[in-house]
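Bench notes, afternoon.
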Amino acid sequence: MAAGRTAAHDMFDADVASRALGIELVSAGDGAAVARMRVTAAMLNGHAIGHGGFVFLLADTAFALACNSHGPATVAAGGEISFLRPVREGDVLTARAIERTRYGRSGIYDVTVSRGDEVVAEFRGRSRTLARGTGG
């Protein structure tokens, strides 16, 4: 692996869904990650604000990058989000994920989604590292 490159970078390279939405990997390593996305017209709901599913997807992507930065394949065991402010077309959202704890094959990560200095959502994810050779 190239210097500064983690397993999360390899995972993101194969993440067709996140990349198709224009999500960018800004950084990933040591249980933390930053991802960025611009809200497009295709992401708006019937109220002309960003659909929460896209905000969740951005947060979930940052979460996945953070928990996979350690190396072993890790998946989500669960996640929840609190939407604090609406987002609009053209907004650039940044999701910053940080590891809170890892224990055994499990972990807890917090993700803050911001528009500039303004927090628009808070996400908490629970991870599970896959057992080697078992697929789960």
